[in-house]
Amino acid sequence: MIQDLLKLTAGAGLALMVAACDEQPPRARPAAFDPMVANPATQKAVKADEAASWSPPQQAAFLAGRVIAADSVFRAGDRDTAKAQLGDLRQQMAALDAGALQALGFEPARIDAIQGALDLDLPDEEIAPLFAGAEANLSGVIEVSGVAPKETVTFLMRLSAEAYDAGVRYGEIRDLEAYQAAYGYAVAARDLISPLDETVYSDLRLELDILVLMWPAAGPLAGRTPPPEVRMSEQFARVKVALAVLP
Prior knowledge:
The protein is 68% helix and 2% strand. It is mainly alpha-helical. It has 2 domains: 47-146; 148-246. Strands 1-2 form a two-stranded antiparallel sheet. The chain is globular and about 45 Å long. This is Lipoprotein.
């Protein structure tokens, strides 16, 4: 009975987590999770038709988060998982507005180059700059778009909360790709805010730093214990409060 109650509490925390990062009501799940099921089915947090409806700056933020996720596991020594992240990302890129993104300076060949380098098993010192270049390119696209950082971070937090919700259930990683994507979106948000005016963004920067640090120090790898859902829900809520007080 106590174990069932704890599981139900964790499930409630996950529902609050998504709501905490989006001003809109959270989208209903296709089916409720049964706490008595040992391995509940999960779904990808982002679908191609949904990504196609986003604005170009939002699409760039999405891409940045996914590239960062792949970079994080690559730097942790897991090349196969990095390739899986990029492989799925390249499929989803087909649904994005390539023309509008490229008009803002996006260079899709940078992502293709990373995938090619991983496929060729090139040395780390040759691949790492490719990741850095792709991330810098996407950061530039977001900056050129002129969208307020507050809007982009709010969007990234919604993606991160939804991906974590899809990736982790009852303290176990159920969808590794979604779990890693959640980390990438959180890092993308933190990196976006880090260089901005500290007098304006200090509280948000602190909460984003804490959010990223909630993942294991080695990164979002398989076989490591993920942050508890309830604690993640609380931290996403703190980020939302910090966003709300921005001008």
